[in-house]
């Protein structure tokens, strides 16, 4: 992916990564809050661009929603410090802190800002929002979560993420709802251990990276653009592998991470939660397969205004990463057994 980063963009990118390290290494809630604020103030210059009205609108919406979540988090932190001995109040405060962090990561039922903002971003910024921006809130949530409340949130994420993608024609919104569904698996992993979450998050980021780079390279933003493209079948095969891997279909690498989480959930007696996650993954796979089938089977039109410059070297690397997704499951199966 070819990006013309100037020095300011690189500076804000460095601050973005540094702010996450501040939050996750802090000894106090106040330090965590400061890290979240620095993260917010460094991400807005990355996404803002005066040439595009949608990006300006998205950066304003992002600032407002994140500010509301930060104010709520700071209020809950101060409330917790003043009411340490009140156990009933602590239960309420834990739910409020969890809600603030869920809003920051774009989780259901606080997800309404997430698809609308991603619709106005570039593929690179969408990739950052779907991956890196989730790290801090999830790690902070693992320190102080309410188990019963978190199980309800996981079920809501799974259902809304699966159902929301049905009616979407925009690929960015579809990937946003897919991210909400995958967030339910990440939160399920947090219930068990941070190492399990880290393993799932790395594999998920790997799959999302390939998808976003591929969409950016082809300059594709809507589903119908996949049908009328004069592109070779190797690229469409790469789409198919990555979509199915993201949906969690064996023998792709995306299934391996979900398989491990299912095993741990069953060992910890989360049977109903496991059932919901599996059923919603099937719905997610349904509309992924619908897109793949349409893009492979529809006859494309050779229109004069479609002119896609694809660098052979870049496509080779993307196809190589896609086939790693295919063969990684076979290797990891033997390793796991």
From TrEMBL:
<comment type="function">
    <text>Core subunit of the mitochondrial membrane respiratory chain NADH dehydrogenase (Complex I) that is believed to belong to the minimal assembly required for catalysis. Complex I functions in the transfer of electrons from NADH to the respiratory chain. The immediate electron acceptor for the enzyme is believed to be ubiquinone.</text>
</comment>
<keyword id="KW-0249">Electron transport</keyword>
<dbReference type="InterPro" id="IPR003917">
    <property type="entry name" value="NADH_UbQ_OxRdtase_chain2"/>
</dbReference>
<feature type="transmembrane region" description="Helical">
    <location>
        <begin position="314"/>
        <end position="336"/>
    </location>
</feature>
<feature type="transmembrane region" description="Helical">
    <location>
        <begin position="243"/>
        <end position="264"/>
    </location>
</feature>
<feature type="transmembrane region" description="Helical">
    <location>
        <begin position="270"/>
        <end position="293"/>
    </location>
</feature>
<dbReference type="Pfam" id="PF00361">
    <property type="entry name" value="Proton_antipo_M"/>
</dbReference>
<dbReference type="InterPro" id="IPR001750">
    <property type="entry name" value="ND/Mrp_TM"/>
</dbReference>
<keyword id="KW-0472">Membrane</keyword>
<keyword id="KW-0812">Transmembrane</keyword>
<protein>
    <recommendedName>
        <fullName>NADH-ubiquinone oxidoreductase chain 2</fullName>
        <ecNumber>7.1.1.2</ecNumber>
    </recommendedName>
</protein>
<feature type="transmembrane region" description="Helical">
    <location>
        <begin position="198"/>
        <end position="222"/>
    </location>
</feature>
<dbReference type="InterPro" id="IPR050175">
    <property type="entry name" value="Complex_I_Subunit_2"/>
</dbReference>
<keyword id="KW-0496">Mitochondrion</keyword>
<dbReference type="GO" id="GO:0006120">
    <property type="term" value="P:mitochondrial electron transport, NADH to ubiquinone"/>
</dbReference>
<feature type="transmembrane region" description="Helical">
    <location>
        <begin position="12"/>
        <end position="36"/>
    </location>
</feature>
<feature type="transmembrane region" description="Helical">
    <location>
        <begin position="60"/>
        <end position="79"/>
    </location>
</feature>
<keyword id="KW-0999">Mitochondrion inner membrane</keyword>
<dbReference type="GO" id="GO:0008137">
    <property type="term" value="F:NADH dehydrogenase (ubiquinone) activity"/>
</dbReference>
<comment type="similarity">
    <text>Belongs to the complex I subunit 2 family.</text>
</comment>
<keyword id="KW-1133">Transmembrane helix</keyword>
<keyword id="KW-1278">Translocase</keyword>
<comment type="function">
    <text>Core subunit of the mitochondrial membrane respiratory chain NADH dehydrogenase (Complex I) which catalyzes electron transfer from NADH through the respiratory chain, using ubiquinone as an electron acceptor. Essential for the catalytic activity and assembly of complex I.</text>
</comment>
<keyword id="KW-0813">Transport</keyword>
<feature type="transmembrane region" description="Helical">
    <location>
        <begin position="149"/>
        <end position="167"/>
    </location>
</feature>
<feature type="domain" description="NADH:quinone oxidoreductase/Mrp antiporter transmembrane">
    <location>
        <begin position="26"/>
        <end position="282"/>
    </location>
</feature>
<keyword id="KW-0679">Respiratory chain</keyword>
<feature type="transmembrane region" description="Helical">
    <location>
        <begin position="91"/>
        <end position="114"/>
    </location>
</feature>
<dbReference type="GO" id="GO:0005743">
    <property type="term" value="C:mitochondrial inner membrane"/>
</dbReference>
<keyword id="KW-0520">NAD</keyword>
<keyword id="KW-0830">Ubiquinone</keyword>
